């Protein structure tokens, strides 16, 4: 059981809210950080007082019960506000790059590079020795991406002619089709998201030719082990967490509108305002 001090806002959380998939009254949110207030009954997992970060359902809460496999301890030199930006966006970036078969010297295109998943993907791909091409929607959204490791930063796919080996796509629509056309034989597109909301129309025969793949992606299973990798990288400074918006969760609407309006570089972090004193944790005898 964790007392949540910070949550982060993902594009997917806003999709969940509108999807109809989440029952009325259920608690939204996926990324939580805070202190353990009750350890797992079977003795596994961190002790009371440990600062942890997790990818869990129901993260927009003051207190949440989390599977031990879904969390990682926060290293001493990493702030919870930074750690909480890592779960959904960082794990999606890490796993999609892994699934694509990244290696040194590969040309990697990251679309939606200004956002949460995109910024982590740029940094992780660059760290793995890839030549990273970051695609953003407008000139103001380029900020910080060259420093994050992008060798090229493009508006859309303007001017990109040489084939790429890997695409991490979170935009979908016509840009996905264009990215597919740029993919080299043997290459891999990971379809992580679809922020454009537009259909992708493949011209006839676009999918006929030397083998290359378009793979759907979703985060499945426990994220704790990957979160441990990401928190260590962040604590070492090998991955930088860019927080483009931070404030009380009382200002949730403001954060959501800014995210939807493409005004947040990197991540939005919500500080969980504490209410009245919590009820005591019930013991097994109660
Ligand atoms: N499959 C999974 O497991 C998984 C995990 C994480 C995220 N996702 C999905 O991945 C996507 C990105 O998530 P995120 O958390 O990184 O979101 P984010 O932080 O809001 O970033 C999304 C980026 O997409 C671009 N974008 C937004 N609206 C757009 C539009 N109408 N047309 C073109 N580009 C647009 C923006 O870049 P510019 O402003 O530069 O255009 C923005 O920086 C979402 O669709 C999310 O649901 C999926």
TrEMBL record:
Residues 1-270 form the Enoyl reductase (ER) domain. SUPFAM superfamilies: GroES-like, NAD(P)-binding Rossmann-fold domains. InterPro entries: ADH-like_C, ADH-like_N, ER, GroES-like_sf, NAD(P)-bd_dom_sf, Zn-ADH-like_protein. Pfam families: ADH_N, ADH_zinc_N. GO terms for molecular function: oxidoreductase activity. PANTHER family: QUINONE OXIDOREDUCTASE-LIKE PROTEIN 2, SHORT-CHAIN DEHYDROGENASE/REDUCTASE. This is Zinc-binding dehydrogenase.
